[in-house]
Task: inverse folding
């Protein structure tokens, strides 16, 4: 493997990180909206968000990317592939994070929001100052777990033809006919990103388990 | 928007797509059986007396859980021929699914084994229950009940993951959809219907597992 091929892999790595970051950050903002709507107590809103979540959790990420990719082209939007793919990952993340955070919001003891209501706090400050700070703590391990899934999931952009780390790897291995070396290296790079996160998430989970025992 | 939807090619291809669904469920089932074998074996080795064995299992679990499935399936697809084993894409996909699912199954099954209460086994012995009865009622059933939800949602995840096996053109729903798409260029219609078929499959699996759980595992915990 020569220097140029190594640079190609690093270029792919950059896109993997960028896709993950966009999907996670924008998806988190949308996901918070989904979680709040899902726990709003408004029947119609709760049903719609439940259906939205079920749709994304019941279908493969690859199909979600395909449908978004071809769907956006169909409504006449001429977008760069990386924009369509980012939109796909963002929608995916918003549904999963919405579901994770719904669970965390519901895991905060009811007395907390009842006490906040008794103190006549309005909805915004009840959520912002009382419920969400506790829910975030509960949700952290699962949120980090999903981030790892998302980073691994960005490899599917390769199937659409977007050159991130995985596709860079297959391109290089087609050039130098050393698939095991190149794919091993690609796997090691993914591992180097994901494993510290998994490790940190598992530690937080243990700490949370002892704190609430 | 002046696009005219045309579902005719998809309707013509519906029998093929349904066969693709069968392929997907077959891949998932075969992968899950292999995953359970790896899972049970892994749990036994995970608590082995030999430190090297334990570390081997831990490294396997961490390596699989922190790398993408697409990379794993490519790796197996290219590595096996080098070892002199030539397999068709579908068999390769089953192996990849089994290895991937196995790493997750090890953690799930281990949780179930650890959830068994030793005091209850002793209570069973004190009541004069036979060893097989103790294993069936006090060890196996509660452990199965403890892992049933995670194991079944893992199975549904595995079913959705099979779509990635289309990358090495194993026979399943996504690759059938891709074949229809490349002949008709009705990308959105084809993938829309394929996505709906996945939704129906995962919904049906969920209902089935809920029925099983209600039938066998609905008794009070304490």
Result:
């Amino acid at each position: 493997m020569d220097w140029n091929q190594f640079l190609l892999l690093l270029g792919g790595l950059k896109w993997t990180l960028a896709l993950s970051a966009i999907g996670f950050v924008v998806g988190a903002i949308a996901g918070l909206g989904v979680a709040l709507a899902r726990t709003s107590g408004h029947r119609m809103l709760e049903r719609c968000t439940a259906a939205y979540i079920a749709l994304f959790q019941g279908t493969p990420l690859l199909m979600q990317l395909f449908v978004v990719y071809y769907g956006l082209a169909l409504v006449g939007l001429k977008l760069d592939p990386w924009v369509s793919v980012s939109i796909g990952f963002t929608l995916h993340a918003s549904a999963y994070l919405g579901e994770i955070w719904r669970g965390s919001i519901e895991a905060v003891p009811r007395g907390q929001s009842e006490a906040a209501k008794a103190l006549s706090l309005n909805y915004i400050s009840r959520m912002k100052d009382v419920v969400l700070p506790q829910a975030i703590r509960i949700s952290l391990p699962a949120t980090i777990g999903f981030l790892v899934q998302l980073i691994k999931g960005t490899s599917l952009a390769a199937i659409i033809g977007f050159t991130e780390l995985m596709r860079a790897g297959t391109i290089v291995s087609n050039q130098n006919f050393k698939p095991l070396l190149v794919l091993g290296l690609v796997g090691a790079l993914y591992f180097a990103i994901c494993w510290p996160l998994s490790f940190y998430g598992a530690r937080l989970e243990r700490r949370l388990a002892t704190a609430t025992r | 928007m002046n696009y005219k939807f045309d579902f005719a090619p998809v309707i013509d291809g519906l029998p093929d797509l349904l066969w693709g669904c069968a392929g997907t469920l077959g891949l998932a089932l075969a992968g899950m059986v292999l995953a359970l074998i790896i899972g049970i074996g892994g749990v036994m080795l995970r608590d082995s007396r030999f430190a090297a064995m334990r570390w081997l299992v831990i490294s396997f679990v961490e390596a699989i859980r922190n790398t993408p499935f697409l990379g794993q399936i490519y790796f197996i697809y290219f590595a096996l021929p080098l070892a002199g084993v030539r397999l068709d894409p579908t068999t390769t996909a089953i192996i990849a699914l089994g290895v991937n699912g196995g790493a997750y199954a090890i953690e799930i099954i281990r949780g179930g084994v650890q959830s068994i209460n030793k005091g209850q086994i002793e209570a069973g012995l004190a009541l004069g229950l036979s060893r097989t009865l103790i294993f069936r009622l006090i060890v196996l059933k509660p452990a199965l009940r403890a892992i049933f939800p995670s194991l079944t949602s893992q199975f549904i995840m595995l079913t959705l993951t099979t779509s990635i096996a289309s990358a090495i053109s194993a026979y399943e729903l996504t690759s059938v959809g891709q074949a229809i798409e490349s002949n008709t260029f009705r990308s959105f219609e084809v993938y829309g219907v394929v996505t709906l078929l996945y939704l129906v499959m995962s919904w049906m699996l969920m209902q089935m597992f809920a029925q099983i759980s209600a039938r066998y595992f609905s008794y009070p915990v304490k």
Chain A has one domain: 3-211.
